Amino acid sequence: MSKLDQVVKDIVAEMQERSDRGEVATYIPELAGVDPKAFGLAVIDADGQLACGGDCDTSFSIQSISKVFTLTFALGMIGDRLWRRVGREPSGSPFNSIVQLERERGIPRNPFINAGAIVVTDLILSGHQPREALGEILRFLQFLADDSSITIDAAVAASENRTGFRNRALANYMKSFSVLENPVDFTLGVYFHHCAIAMSCRQLAMAGRFLAHHGRNPSTGLLVVQPERARRINAIMLTCGHYDGSGEFAYRVGLPGKSGVGGGILAIAPGRASIAVWSPGLDAAGNSHLGRLALEELTKRMGWSIFGGN
Ligand code: DON
Question: pTM here?
Answer without folding.
Answer: 0.98
